[in-house]
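Pasting as-is:
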Amino acid sequence: MATDKAKEYQLVVFTIGDEEFGVDITQVREIVRLVQITYLPKAASFIEGVVNLRGQILAVIDLSKRLGIGSKPRGERTRIIVVEVGENIVGMIVDSVSEVLRLASDSIEEVPSLIDTEVPEHYIRGVGKLKDRLLVLLDLTRILTMEEIKHVEYHVKSISENAKDSKTQ
């Protein structure tokens, strides 16, 4: 990321617990309030379930559980960030979304080995340096493994087909 000095990134900034993160806005479809989530059987512990978002069924993961960090209790500021992970659309629960900002590529550094975060390094794309704070930039393509994606796709497809069948009856 830090090689193209002229490039500027637009980032969606959000918090989980006391940590602040950023993701490339091109991966974000929308940000919605927390809605009722339907439980998915036999899913990984960080997969909360699925939601029906304007007729589209999508899986929702608890990003704090996936990253292994503590979060704040869910409340009025809790959001679901709907993102593209590869060819899949997934919702990610975060404590709050604070802003969209622009960051020049020369303000982004590779992951320092001594970074003060509990997040496993392979989820981190880099660190954005702002005037008064650091922003951990996540690589959303690494949030789910291929096996997890296939499991989620199977259940989402099954739920979608059941919903279509019940409408036609």
